[in-house]
Records
---
Amino acid sequence: MQQTAAPSGLPFLKMHGLGNDFVILDSRGRPAVTTPELARAVGDRNRGVGFDQLAEIRSSDVADIDLDFWNNDGSRAGACGNATRCVARLIMDETGQDRVTIRTERGTLVAVRASDEVSVNMGHPVRDWDQVPLAQDVDVDHLPMEGDPVAVGMGNPHAVFFVADSGAVDVAGWGAQVEHDPLFPARTNVEFAEVRARDEIRMRVWERGTGITLACGSGACATVVAAATRGLTDRKVRMEVDGGWLTLDWREDGVWMTGPTALVYRAELTPEFLDAL
Ligand SMILES: N[C@@H](CCC[C@H](N)C(=O)O)C(=O)O
Protein backbone atom coordinates (compact mmCIF):
# COMPACT_ATOMS: atom_id res chain seq x y z
CA MET A 1 0.00 0.00 0.00
CA GLN A 2 1.35 3.42 -0.89
CA GLN A 3 2.05 5.64 2.12
CA THR A 4 1.03 9.24 1.75
CA ALA A 5 2.89 11.81 3.86
CA ALA A 6 0.77 13.44 6.55
CA PRO A 7 -0.02 17.02 5.57
CA SER A 8 2.46 19.20 7.38
CA GLY A 9 1.57 22.37 9.18
CA LEU A 10 3.72 25.29 10.26
CA PRO A 11 5.58 24.91 13.59
CA PHE A 12 5.77 27.93 15.88
CA LEU A 13 6.65 28.87 19.43
CA LYS A 14 4.74 31.09 21.80
CA MET A 15 6.93 33.24 24.06
CA HIS A 16 6.57 36.38 26.10
CA GLY A 17 8.68 39.00 27.81
CA LEU A 18 6.77 40.58 30.70
CA GLY A 19 3.49 39.59 29.06
CA ASN A 20 4.38 41.21 25.72
CA ASP A 21 3.56 38.05 23.77
CA PHE A 22 4.93 36.65 20.54
CA VAL A 23 4.46 33.95 17.96
CA ILE A 24 7.88 32.93 16.69
CA LEU A 25 8.41 31.28 13.33
CA ASP A 26 11.72 29.75 12.40
CA SER A 27 12.33 30.08 8.65
CA ARG A 28 16.06 29.40 8.68
CA GLY A 29 17.00 27.52 5.52
CA ARG A 30 13.75 28.18 3.70
CA PRO A 31 11.90 31.17 2.25
CA ALA A 32 10.16 33.52 4.68
CA VAL A 33 6.45 32.80 5.08
CA THR A 34 4.95 35.82 6.82
CA THR A 35 2.59 38.06 4.88
CA PRO A 36 0.26 40.74 6.26
CA GLU A 37 -2.64 38.24 5.85
CA LEU A 38 -0.84 35.52 7.82
CA ALA A 39 0.12 37.98 10.57
CA ARG A 40 -3.47 39.22 10.90
CA ALA A 41 -4.97 35.68 10.88
CA VAL A 42 -2.50 34.19 13.38
CA GLY A 43 -2.65 37.35 15.49
CA ASP A 44 -6.43 37.15 15.88
CA ARG A 45 -7.01 36.15 19.55
CA ASN A 46 -10.35 34.47 18.72
CA ARG A 47 -9.79 32.76 15.38
CA GLY A 48 -6.00 32.40 15.46
CA VAL A 49 -3.32 32.10 18.14
CA GLY A 50 -3.10 35.72 19.25
CA PHE A 51 0.04 37.77 19.77
CA ASP A 52 1.27 41.31 20.17
CA GLN A 53 4.01 40.68 17.59
CA LEU A 54 5.07 37.88 15.26
CA ALA A 55 8.83 37.38 14.93
CA GLU A 56 10.25 35.41 12.01
CA ILE A 57 13.79 34.03 12.32
CA ARG A 58 15.73 33.84 9.06
CA SER A 59 19.18 32.67 8.02
CA SER A 60 21.76 35.45 8.08
CA ASP A 61 24.96 36.10 6.21
CA VAL A 62 26.17 38.77 8.65
CA ALA A 63 24.88 37.76 12.10
CA ASP A 64 23.81 34.60 13.95
CA ILE A 65 20.27 35.19 12.67
CA ASP A 66 18.10 37.76 10.91
CA LEU A 67 14.81 38.68 12.61
CA ASP A 68 11.69 40.35 11.16
CA PHE A 69 8.77 41.70 13.21
CA TRP A 70 5.06 42.08 12.43
CA ASN A 71 2.24 43.63 14.47
CA ASN A 72 -1.10 41.87 14.82
CA ASP A 73 -2.76 44.36 12.43
CA GLY A 74 -0.48 42.96 9.68
CA SER A 75 1.95 45.90 9.64
CA ARG A 76 5.72 45.57 9.88
CA ALA A 77 7.60 46.77 12.97
CA GLY A 78 11.20 47.88 12.56
CA ALA A 79 12.10 46.96 16.11
CA CYS A 80 10.77 44.84 18.95
CA GLY A 81 12.95 44.75 22.04
CA ASN A 82 11.11 42.08 24.00
CA ALA A 83 10.85 39.67 21.04
CA THR A 84 14.55 40.25 20.38
CA ARG A 85 15.32 39.20 23.97
CA CYS A 86 13.05 36.13 23.68
CA VAL A 87 14.58 34.96 20.40
CA ALA A 88 18.09 35.68 21.73
CA ARG A 89 17.40 33.30 24.60
CA LEU A 90 16.22 30.60 22.16
CA ILE A 91 19.38 30.91 20.09
CA MET A 92 21.63 30.99 23.18
CA ASP A 93 19.91 27.84 24.50
CA GLU A 94 20.38 26.23 21.08
CA THR A 95 24.07 27.12 20.70
CA GLY A 96 25.12 26.97 24.35
CA GLN A 97 26.68 30.42 23.91
CA ASP A 98 25.99 33.43 26.16
CA ARG A 99 26.04 35.97 23.32
CA VAL A 100 24.12 36.24 20.07
CA THR A 101 24.09 38.72 17.18
CA ILE A 102 20.74 39.49 15.54
CA ARG A 103 20.25 41.52 12.39
CA THR A 104 17.00 43.50 12.42
CA GLU A 105 15.76 46.32 10.21
CA ARG A 106 17.54 48.80 12.48
CA GLY A 107 20.91 47.03 12.30
CA THR A 108 22.75 44.20 13.98
CA LEU A 109 22.03 43.99 17.70
CA VAL A 110 23.99 42.13 20.37
CA ALA A 111 22.23 40.22 23.15
CA VAL A 112 23.84 38.54 26.15
CA ARG A 113 22.70 36.30 28.98
CA ALA A 114 22.45 38.16 32.30
CA SER A 115 21.93 35.47 35.01
CA ASP A 116 18.43 34.20 34.33
CA GLU A 117 17.52 37.24 32.22
CA VAL A 118 18.54 38.50 28.78
CA SER A 119 20.09 41.89 27.94
CA VAL A 120 20.02 43.41 24.48
CA ASN A 121 21.74 46.52 23.18
CA MET A 122 18.92 48.24 21.24
CA GLY A 123 21.37 50.69 19.68
CA HIS A 124 21.55 54.47 19.67
CA PRO A 125 18.35 56.50 19.79
CA VAL A 126 17.42 58.46 16.65
CA ARG A 127 16.75 62.16 17.32
CA ASP A 128 16.59 63.65 13.80
CA TRP A 129 12.98 64.66 13.09
CA ASP A 130 12.93 63.11 9.62
CA GLN A 131 14.42 59.85 10.84
CA VAL A 132 11.99 59.29 13.74
CA PRO A 133 10.06 59.93 11.40
CA LEU A 134 8.04 63.12 11.91
CA ALA A 135 6.13 64.95 9.20
CA GLN A 136 7.72 68.36 9.92
CA ASP A 137 10.95 69.89 11.18
CA VAL A 138 9.97 70.44 14.84
CA ASP A 139 11.79 70.24 18.19
CA VAL A 140 11.89 66.50 18.98
CA ASP A 141 12.33 67.29 22.70
CA HIS A 142 9.07 69.26 22.79
CA LEU A 143 6.62 68.17 20.13
CA PRO A 144 3.99 70.78 19.30
CA MET A 145 1.04 68.86 20.68
CA GLU A 146 -0.96 68.77 23.90
CA GLY A 147 0.99 67.02 26.66
CA ASP A 148 4.44 68.20 25.43
CA PRO A 149 5.78 64.75 24.40
CA VAL A 150 9.31 63.80 23.36
CA ALA A 151 9.92 61.99 20.05
CA VAL A 152 12.48 59.17 20.00
CA GLY A 153 13.30 56.67 17.24
CA MET A 154 14.50 53.23 18.31
CA GLY A 155 14.17 51.68 14.86
CA ASN A 156 10.49 52.52 15.30
CA PRO A 157 8.80 55.79 16.29
CA HIS A 158 7.87 56.68 19.88
CA ALA A 159 6.11 59.64 21.50
CA VAL A 160 6.84 59.77 25.24
CA PHE A 161 4.51 61.76 27.50
CA PHE A 162 5.42 62.55 31.12
CA VAL A 163 2.41 62.32 33.40
CA ALA A 164 1.82 62.74 37.13
CA ASP A 165 -0.21 59.54 37.52
CA SER A 166 0.16 56.85 34.85
CA GLY A 167 -2.67 54.85 36.42
CA ALA A 168 -5.12 57.66 35.71
CA VAL A 169 -4.29 57.90 31.98
CA ASP A 170 -6.81 56.74 29.37
CA VAL A 171 -4.11 54.82 27.50
CA ALA A 172 -6.47 53.49 24.80
CA GLY A 173 -8.16 56.81 24.07
CA TRP A 174 -5.10 59.08 24.20
CA GLY A 175 -2.75 56.47 22.72
CA ALA A 176 -4.91 55.74 19.67
CA GLN A 177 -5.35 59.45 18.98
CA VAL A 178 -1.59 60.13 19.10
CA GLU A 179 -0.77 56.99 17.06
CA HIS A 180 -2.74 58.46 14.15
CA ASP A 181 -1.73 62.13 14.58
CA PRO A 182 -0.58 63.59 11.21
CA LEU A 183 2.74 64.57 12.84
CA PHE A 184 3.67 60.86 12.60
CA PRO A 185 3.62 59.80 8.92
CA ALA A 186 4.37 56.17 9.87
CA ARG A 187 2.08 56.33 12.95
CA THR A 188 3.76 55.99 16.37
CA ASN A 189 4.02 54.00 19.57
CA VAL A 190 2.95 56.04 22.60
CA GLU A 191 4.39 55.85 26.13
CA PHE A 192 2.97 57.41 29.30
CA ALA A 193 5.76 57.75 31.86
CA GLU A 194 5.55 58.66 35.52
CA VAL A 195 8.92 59.48 37.05
CA ARG A 196 9.04 58.09 40.59
CA ALA A 197 12.70 58.76 41.34
CA ARG A 198 15.90 59.53 39.44
CA ASP A 199 16.33 55.78 38.99
CA GLU A 200 12.73 54.60 38.70
CA ILE A 201 9.93 55.10 36.17
CA ARG A 202 6.44 53.64 35.86
CA MET A 203 5.43 53.36 32.20
CA ARG A 204 2.27 52.32 30.34
CA VAL A 205 2.14 51.90 26.60
CA TRP A 206 -0.03 52.03 23.51
CA GLU A 207 1.69 50.20 20.65
CA ARG A 208 1.33 51.13 17.01
CA GLY A 209 -0.42 48.31 15.14
CA THR A 210 -1.31 46.42 18.32
CA GLY A 211 -2.87 48.62 21.03
CA ILE A 212 -2.32 48.37 24.79
CA THR A 213 0.36 45.82 25.70
CA LEU A 214 1.79 44.76 29.05
CA ALA A 215 5.29 45.84 28.03
CA CYS A 216 7.18 47.35 25.11
CA GLY A 217 10.95 47.02 25.07
CA SER A 218 11.69 49.64 22.44
CA GLY A 219 9.19 51.91 24.24
CA ALA A 220 11.04 51.40 27.52
CA CYS A 221 14.29 52.38 25.75
CA ALA A 222 12.66 55.47 24.24
CA THR A 223 11.31 56.41 27.67
CA VAL A 224 14.68 56.36 29.43
CA VAL A 225 16.17 58.41 26.58
CA ALA A 226 13.37 60.98 26.88
CA ALA A 227 13.57 61.11 30.69
CA ALA A 228 17.35 61.45 30.84
CA THR A 229 17.38 64.03 28.02
CA ARG A 230 14.85 66.13 29.93
CA GLY A 231 17.02 65.78 33.06
CA LEU A 232 14.27 63.95 34.95
CA THR A 233 16.23 60.76 35.61
CA ASP A 234 19.69 59.26 35.41
CA ARG A 235 20.60 57.17 32.35
CA LYS A 236 20.15 53.92 34.28
CA VAL A 237 16.66 53.22 35.61
CA ARG A 238 14.41 50.43 36.75
CA MET A 239 11.12 50.61 34.91
CA GLU A 240 7.82 49.12 36.02
CA VAL A 241 5.50 48.29 33.13
CA ASP A 242 2.11 46.58 33.36
CA GLY A 243 3.78 43.15 33.03
CA GLY A 244 6.70 43.57 35.44
CA TRP A 245 10.12 45.17 35.63
CA LEU A 246 12.87 46.00 33.13
CA THR A 247 16.27 47.58 33.66
CA LEU A 248 17.34 50.25 31.15
CA ASP A 249 20.86 51.55 30.84
CA TRP A 250 21.63 54.22 28.21
CA ARG A 251 25.37 53.70 27.70
CA GLU A 252 27.95 55.09 25.27
CA ASP A 253 27.34 52.17 22.89
CA GLY A 254 23.53 52.26 22.95
CA VAL A 255 20.49 51.61 25.12
CA TRP A 256 20.70 48.30 26.96
CA MET A 257 17.53 46.64 28.15
CA THR A 258 17.46 43.68 30.56
CA GLY A 259 14.50 41.55 31.59
CA PRO A 260 12.94 38.10 31.79
CA THR A 261 11.79 35.84 28.95
CA ALA A 262 9.39 32.88 28.99
CA LEU A 263 8.74 30.02 26.59
CA VAL A 264 5.02 29.18 26.77
CA TYR A 265 4.57 26.32 24.29
CA ARG A 266 5.53 24.84 20.95
CA ALA A 267 2.71 24.03 18.51
CA GLU A 268 1.80 23.94 14.84
CA LEU A 269 -0.59 25.87 12.60
CA THR A 270 -2.67 23.23 10.82
CA PRO A 271 -2.87 22.92 7.02
CA GLU A 272 -6.62 23.60 7.42
CA PHE A 273 -5.90 26.96 9.06
CA LEU A 274 -3.22 27.86 6.50
CA ASP A 275 -5.38 26.81 3.53
CA ALA A 276 -8.16 29.14 4.71
CA LEU A 277 -5.91 32.21 4.42
N1 LIG B 1 6.61 45.25 21.71
C1 LIG B 1 7.70 45.77 21.01
C2 LIG B 1 7.48 46.86 20.03
C3 LIG B 1 6.70 46.39 18.83
C4 LIG B 1 6.71 47.27 17.64
C5 LIG B 1 5.68 48.34 17.60
N2 LIG B 1 4.34 47.95 17.85
C6 LIG B 1 5.84 49.09 16.30
O1 LIG B 1 5.00 49.00 15.37
O2 LIG B 1 6.81 49.82 16.19
C7 LIG B 1 8.96 45.93 21.82
O3 LIG B 1 9.14 45.16 22.78
O4 LIG B 1 9.79 46.76 21.48
Note: The pocket of LBFN2T5F is lined by residues 20, 52-53, 71, 77, 79-82, 156, 189, 207-210, 213, 216-218 (CB under 6 Å).
---
Amino acid sequence: MSGGSGNPVLYLDGVSVVFDGFKALNNLSLFVEPGELRAIIGPNGAGKTTMMDVITGKTRPTEGTVRFHQHDLTKLDEATIANLGIGRKFQKPTMFDALTVFENLELALKAPRGPFACLRWILTGEARRKIEGVMEEVGLGARAHDRAGVLSHGQRQWLEIGMLLMQDPELLLVDEPVAGMTDQETEHTAALLVRIAGARSVVVVEHDLEFVRALGSKVTVLCEGTMLSEGSIDHVQSDPRVIEVYLGR
Ligand SMILES: Nc1ncnc2c1ncn2[C@@H]1O[C@H](COP(=O)(O)OP(=O)(O)OP(=O)(O)O)[C@@H](O)[C@H]1O
Protein backbone atom coordinates (compact mmCIF):
# COMPACT_ATOMS: atom_id res chain seq x y z
CA MET A 1 0.00 0.00 0.00
CA SER A 2 1.20 3.47 -0.80
CA GLY A 3 -0.60 6.54 0.38
CA GLY A 4 1.71 9.09 1.88
CA SER A 5 1.79 10.27 5.43
CA GLY A 6 -1.49 11.99 6.27
CA ASN A 7 -5.11 11.16 5.74
CA PRO A 8 -5.81 11.23 2.02
CA VAL A 9 -8.54 13.49 0.69
CA LEU A 10 -9.33 10.94 -1.96
CA TYR A 11 -8.98 7.23 -1.35
CA LEU A 12 -9.57 4.58 -4.01
CA ASP A 13 -8.80 1.02 -3.03
CA GLY A 14 -9.29 -2.11 -5.11
CA VAL A 15 -11.68 -0.38 -7.49
CA SER A 16 -12.98 -2.33 -10.47
CA VAL A 17 -15.54 -1.31 -13.06
CA VAL A 18 -16.89 -3.98 -15.37
CA PHE A 19 -18.80 -3.06 -18.54
CA ASP A 20 -20.39 -6.12 -20.15
CA GLY A 21 -17.64 -8.37 -18.88
CA PHE A 22 -14.86 -5.91 -19.84
CA LYS A 23 -12.79 -4.51 -16.96
CA ALA A 24 -12.41 -0.77 -17.60
CA LEU A 25 -10.88 -0.48 -14.11
CA ASN A 26 -9.13 -3.45 -12.58
CA ASN A 27 -8.28 -3.37 -8.87
CA LEU A 28 -7.19 0.29 -9.00
CA SER A 29 -5.86 1.96 -5.87
CA LEU A 30 -5.03 5.65 -5.68
CA PHE A 31 -4.53 8.05 -2.78
CA VAL A 32 -4.47 11.83 -3.10
CA GLU A 33 -3.22 13.97 -0.23
CA PRO A 34 -4.61 17.36 0.85
CA GLY A 35 -3.19 20.08 -1.41
CA GLU A 36 -1.57 17.56 -3.73
CA LEU A 37 -1.30 18.05 -7.49
CA ARG A 38 -1.43 14.65 -9.24
CA ALA A 39 -1.10 13.89 -12.91
CA ILE A 40 -2.74 10.79 -14.39
CA ILE A 41 -1.42 9.55 -17.71
CA GLY A 42 -2.00 6.41 -19.73
CA PRO A 43 -2.69 5.20 -23.24
CA ASN A 44 -6.15 5.41 -24.83
CA GLY A 45 -8.62 3.17 -23.09
CA ALA A 46 -6.48 2.93 -19.92
CA GLY A 47 -9.46 3.84 -17.74
CA LYS A 48 -8.68 7.49 -16.95
CA THR A 49 -12.16 8.78 -17.78
CA THR A 50 -13.79 5.84 -16.02
CA MET A 51 -11.73 6.66 -12.91
CA MET A 52 -12.97 10.28 -12.97
CA ASP A 53 -16.53 9.01 -13.53
CA VAL A 54 -16.25 6.76 -10.48
CA ILE A 55 -15.04 9.65 -8.29
CA THR A 56 -17.86 11.95 -9.40
CA GLY A 57 -20.56 9.29 -9.04
CA LYS A 58 -21.34 9.04 -12.74
CA THR A 59 -20.24 5.40 -12.80
CA ARG A 60 -20.63 2.94 -9.93
CA PRO A 61 -17.70 0.63 -9.26
CA THR A 62 -18.39 -3.08 -9.45
CA GLU A 63 -16.13 -3.50 -6.43
CA GLY A 64 -13.79 -1.51 -4.25
CA THR A 65 -13.73 1.48 -1.93
CA VAL A 66 -14.00 5.12 -3.06
CA ARG A 67 -13.83 7.69 -0.28
CA PHE A 68 -13.59 11.47 -0.09
CA HIS A 69 -12.57 12.08 3.51
CA GLN A 70 -15.02 9.89 5.43
CA HIS A 71 -17.68 9.94 2.69
CA ASP A 72 -18.34 6.73 0.78
CA LEU A 73 -18.72 8.05 -2.77
CA THR A 74 -20.11 4.78 -4.07
CA LYS A 75 -23.32 5.51 -2.13
CA LEU A 76 -23.84 9.11 -3.25
CA ASP A 77 -25.30 10.69 -6.39
CA GLU A 78 -23.45 13.15 -8.63
CA ALA A 79 -25.07 16.29 -7.20
CA THR A 80 -24.34 15.30 -3.61
CA ILE A 81 -20.72 14.52 -4.49
CA ALA A 82 -20.33 17.90 -6.21
CA ASN A 83 -21.77 19.60 -3.14
CA LEU A 84 -19.26 17.83 -0.91
CA GLY A 85 -16.56 19.82 -2.73
CA ILE A 86 -15.48 17.81 -5.76
CA GLY A 87 -15.39 19.91 -8.93
CA ARG A 88 -14.80 18.51 -12.40
CA LYS A 89 -13.68 20.38 -15.46
CA PHE A 90 -14.61 18.74 -18.71
CA GLN A 91 -12.87 19.53 -21.98
CA LYS A 92 -15.78 21.46 -23.42
CA PRO A 93 -16.30 24.87 -21.79
CA THR A 94 -19.77 25.66 -20.43
CA MET A 95 -19.60 29.44 -19.97
CA PHE A 96 -21.92 32.05 -21.45
CA ASP A 97 -20.19 33.69 -24.42
CA ALA A 98 -22.31 36.85 -24.26
CA LEU A 99 -21.37 37.51 -20.63
CA THR A 100 -18.09 38.96 -19.43
CA VAL A 101 -15.42 37.08 -17.53
CA PHE A 102 -16.59 38.79 -14.35
CA GLU A 103 -20.24 37.96 -14.99
CA ASN A 104 -19.51 34.31 -15.71
CA LEU A 105 -17.63 34.05 -12.42
CA GLU A 106 -20.47 35.82 -10.65
CA LEU A 107 -22.96 33.28 -12.02
CA ALA A 108 -20.71 30.42 -10.94
CA LEU A 109 -20.70 31.84 -7.43
CA LYS A 110 -24.36 32.33 -6.90
CA ALA A 111 -25.57 29.26 -8.83
CA PRO A 112 -29.15 30.51 -8.51
CA ARG A 113 -31.73 27.93 -7.54
CA GLY A 114 -35.35 28.64 -8.45
CA PRO A 115 -36.80 31.13 -10.93
CA PHE A 116 -36.40 34.32 -8.88
CA ALA A 117 -33.18 33.55 -7.09
CA CYS A 118 -31.20 35.87 -9.34
CA LEU A 119 -33.48 38.85 -8.61
CA ARG A 120 -32.73 38.57 -4.93
CA TRP A 121 -29.02 38.45 -5.56
CA ILE A 122 -26.99 41.46 -4.51
CA LEU A 123 -23.28 41.44 -5.22
CA THR A 124 -21.70 41.93 -1.83
CA GLY A 125 -18.23 43.34 -1.33
CA GLU A 126 -17.13 39.93 -0.22
CA ALA A 127 -18.40 38.29 -3.41
CA ARG A 128 -16.71 40.95 -5.53
CA ARG A 129 -13.40 40.39 -3.77
CA LYS A 130 -13.75 36.66 -4.27
CA ILE A 131 -14.38 37.09 -8.01
CA GLU A 132 -11.39 39.42 -8.27
CA GLY A 133 -9.24 36.95 -6.36
CA VAL A 134 -10.18 34.10 -8.68
CA MET A 135 -9.58 36.26 -11.77
CA GLU A 136 -6.05 36.93 -10.50
CA GLU A 137 -5.53 33.26 -9.67
CA VAL A 138 -6.36 32.14 -13.21
CA GLY A 139 -4.59 35.07 -14.86
CA LEU A 140 -7.64 36.83 -16.29
CA GLY A 141 -7.54 39.96 -14.12
CA ALA A 142 -6.99 42.18 -17.15
CA ARG A 143 -9.91 40.59 -19.04
CA ALA A 144 -12.64 41.13 -16.39
CA HIS A 145 -14.93 43.09 -18.69
CA ASP A 146 -14.29 41.22 -21.93
CA ARG A 147 -17.01 38.91 -23.11
CA ALA A 148 -16.15 35.23 -22.79
CA GLY A 149 -16.86 34.83 -26.51
CA VAL A 150 -13.81 36.89 -27.48
CA LEU A 151 -11.35 34.96 -25.32
CA SER A 152 -8.77 32.63 -26.83
CA HIS A 153 -9.18 28.87 -26.46
CA GLY A 154 -6.68 28.84 -23.59
CA GLN A 155 -8.29 31.78 -21.78
CA ARG A 156 -11.67 30.05 -22.00
CA GLN A 157 -10.20 26.99 -20.30
CA TRP A 158 -8.80 29.20 -17.52
CA LEU A 159 -12.15 30.92 -17.09
CA GLU A 160 -13.78 27.52 -16.77
CA ILE A 161 -11.26 26.58 -14.05
CA GLY A 162 -12.03 29.92 -12.39
CA MET A 163 -15.76 29.13 -12.46
CA LEU A 164 -15.06 25.89 -10.63
CA LEU A 165 -12.87 27.69 -8.08
CA MET A 166 -15.81 29.97 -7.26
CA GLN A 167 -17.46 26.91 -5.70
CA ASP A 168 -14.46 26.36 -3.37
CA PRO A 169 -13.82 22.74 -4.33
CA GLU A 170 -11.54 20.80 -2.05
CA LEU A 171 -10.74 18.44 -4.91
CA LEU A 172 -10.62 19.57 -8.51
CA LEU A 173 -10.59 17.03 -11.35
CA VAL A 174 -9.30 18.39 -14.64
CA ASP A 175 -9.69 16.45 -17.89
CA GLU A 176 -7.11 17.08 -20.66
CA PRO A 177 -6.77 20.80 -20.00
CA VAL A 178 -4.18 21.60 -22.67
CA ALA A 179 -5.71 19.84 -25.67
CA GLY A 180 -5.63 22.34 -28.53
CA MET A 181 -3.59 24.94 -26.66
CA THR A 182 -0.56 26.83 -27.96
CA ASP A 183 2.80 26.14 -26.28
CA GLN A 184 2.54 29.40 -24.40
CA GLU A 185 -0.99 28.63 -23.20
CA THR A 186 0.16 25.16 -22.16
CA GLU A 187 2.95 26.69 -20.04
CA HIS A 188 0.54 29.15 -18.48
CA THR A 189 -1.86 26.29 -17.66
CA ALA A 190 0.87 24.28 -15.94
CA ALA A 191 1.79 27.30 -13.81
CA LEU A 192 -1.89 27.93 -13.07
CA LEU A 193 -2.50 24.38 -11.86
CA VAL A 194 0.64 24.42 -9.72
CA ARG A 195 -0.59 27.72 -8.22
CA ILE A 196 -4.12 26.57 -7.44
CA ALA A 197 -3.08 23.22 -5.94
CA GLY A 198 -1.98 23.63 -2.34
CA ALA A 199 -5.17 25.36 -1.31
CA ARG A 200 -7.02 22.31 -2.68
CA SER A 201 -6.09 18.98 -4.27
CA VAL A 202 -5.98 18.82 -8.06
CA VAL A 203 -6.04 15.67 -10.21
CA VAL A 204 -5.16 16.24 -13.87
CA VAL A 205 -5.66 13.71 -16.66
CA GLU A 206 -3.46 14.57 -19.61
CA HIS A 207 -1.75 13.01 -22.63
CA ASP A 208 0.86 15.72 -23.14
CA LEU A 209 3.98 14.50 -21.31
CA GLU A 210 5.88 17.79 -21.63
CA PHE A 211 2.99 19.49 -19.86
CA VAL A 212 2.98 16.79 -17.17
CA ARG A 213 6.71 17.35 -16.72
CA ALA A 214 6.08 21.08 -16.23
CA LEU A 215 3.62 20.27 -13.42
CA GLY A 216 6.51 18.77 -11.43
CA SER A 217 4.02 16.58 -9.57
CA LYS A 218 3.70 12.91 -8.76
CA VAL A 219 2.50 10.99 -11.79
CA THR A 220 0.27 7.91 -11.86
CA VAL A 221 0.39 5.81 -15.02
CA LEU A 222 -2.77 3.82 -15.73
CA CYS A 223 -2.86 0.93 -18.15
CA GLU A 224 -5.64 -1.56 -18.73
CA GLY A 225 -7.54 -0.19 -15.77
CA THR A 226 -4.83 -0.55 -13.20
CA MET A 227 -1.87 1.41 -11.82
CA LEU A 228 1.22 0.55 -13.83
CA SER A 229 3.71 2.95 -12.27
CA GLU A 230 3.77 5.90 -9.90
CA GLY A 231 6.34 8.54 -8.97
CA SER A 232 8.12 11.51 -10.48
CA ILE A 233 7.93 11.99 -14.24
CA ASP A 234 11.59 10.89 -14.51
CA HIS A 235 10.81 7.76 -12.51
CA VAL A 236 7.80 6.72 -14.59
CA GLN A 237 9.43 7.63 -17.91
CA SER A 238 12.35 5.36 -17.13
CA ASP A 239 10.15 2.51 -15.89
CA PRO A 240 10.50 -0.33 -18.44
CA ARG A 241 6.80 -1.23 -18.10
CA VAL A 242 5.82 2.34 -19.02
CA ILE A 243 8.29 2.44 -21.90
CA GLU A 244 6.78 -0.75 -23.25
CA VAL A 245 3.24 0.58 -23.07
CA TYR A 246 4.11 3.90 -24.71
CA LEU A 247 6.83 2.93 -27.15
CA GLY A 248 6.89 -0.85 -27.22
CA ARG A 249 4.62 -1.58 -30.14
N1 LIG B 1 -20.04 2.83 -20.83
C1 LIG B 1 -19.15 1.97 -21.30
N2 LIG B 1 -19.52 0.75 -21.77
C2 LIG B 1 -18.63 -0.13 -22.24
N3 LIG B 1 -17.29 0.10 -22.27
C3 LIG B 1 -16.86 1.28 -21.83
C4 LIG B 1 -17.74 2.29 -21.32
N4 LIG B 1 -17.00 3.37 -20.94
C5 LIG B 1 -15.72 3.05 -21.21
N5 LIG B 1 -15.63 1.81 -21.74
C6 LIG B 1 -14.38 1.13 -22.12
O1 LIG B 1 -13.54 1.12 -21.00
C7 LIG B 1 -12.19 1.34 -21.38
C8 LIG B 1 -11.62 2.51 -20.61
O2 LIG B 1 -12.17 3.71 -21.13
P1 LIG B 1 -11.80 5.16 -20.61
O3 LIG B 1 -12.63 6.11 -21.41
O4 LIG B 1 -11.95 5.21 -19.13
O5 LIG B 1 -10.28 5.27 -20.99
P2 LIG B 1 -9.36 6.58 -21.06
O6 LIG B 1 -8.08 6.20 -20.37
O7 LIG B 1 -10.09 7.74 -20.54
O8 LIG B 1 -9.10 6.70 -22.61
P3 LIG B 1 -8.84 8.03 -23.51
O9 LIG B 1 -7.43 8.44 -23.22
O10 LIG B 1 -9.01 7.49 -24.89
O11 LIG B 1 -9.86 9.05 -23.11
C9 LIG B 1 -12.19 1.55 -22.89
O12 LIG B 1 -11.82 0.33 -23.50
C10 LIG B 1 -13.62 1.89 -23.20
O13 LIG B 1 -13.98 1.45 -24.50
Note: The chain has two domains: 1-85+169-248, 92-168.
